[in-house]
Target: sn-glycerol-3-phosphate import ATP-binding protein UgpC
Amino acid sequence: MASVTLKDVRKVYAGGVEAVKGVSLDIDDGAFCVLVGPSGCGKSTLLRMVAGLETISGGTVDIGGRVVNAIEPSERDIAMVFQNYALYPHMSVYENMAYGLKNRGTPKAEIEARVGEAARILAIEPFLKRRPRELSGGQRQRVAMGRAIVRKPQVFLFDEPLSNLDAKLRVQMRVEIKRLQRQLGVTSIYVTHDQVEAMTLSDKLVVMSGGQIEQVGTPTDVYRRP
Ligand code: ADP
Ligand code: ADP
Model:
């Protein structure tokens, strides 16, 4: 686990779009921070800068006491869960979950133990030999989360992970993520435009608008205000 500190973080895209206009934010060890706001307000850009998928135009991103501005995604101790799952179609569920660990040279027995544990936590043990196309949307999203969990990262990043699911599954997975949060306690940053997700999942809620933070606090603080 690690704290995440953003200091005056900015992003200007080629072409001049100012997507993030000086965001400062402290996320404590083990906190679940949700970034919420309308489409285009800069949430995804901010998350992608923390992930190292987007260059940082100004300010600093600090993960666990280390400024990571110029550090490659693979060198940051983070795992990201994407909206479109980003699973490898030609690999089985097991191979998808094991892939990142294999690349890091984790011993086979350790990989088996970690994938087994994550599969148990997420109730996807029966599907380990299947390909992603043989799974439902909810099961695929569980695999995507499993792939993040097995890494045992310091920080989880979630980019609208539930928006491709139908309403019923969204509620189910929300409960699942909440349970994982309690069980694992890993520092998390979660991007969504869904206020219900934001309210139910967050310890720390950040409302963004036009590339800036508009409000920050506990969900009750934020939603109590007029
Ligand atoms: P959100 O995640 O809140 O929907 P984004 O971070 O995706 O917002 O986008 C913030 C702003 O930056 C928008 O105006 C969007 O059009 C712009 N933007 C996002 N990605 C790029 C890009 N690769 N190049 C140029 N502009 C971009
Ligand atoms: P999100 O809101 O989840 O970021 P989008 O559909 O806005 O999803 O963006 C999908 C992809 O297109 C992202 O990689 C984003 O960086 C890029 N993108 C978004 N807006 C622009 C833009 N105005 N110009 C170029 N690329 C963009």
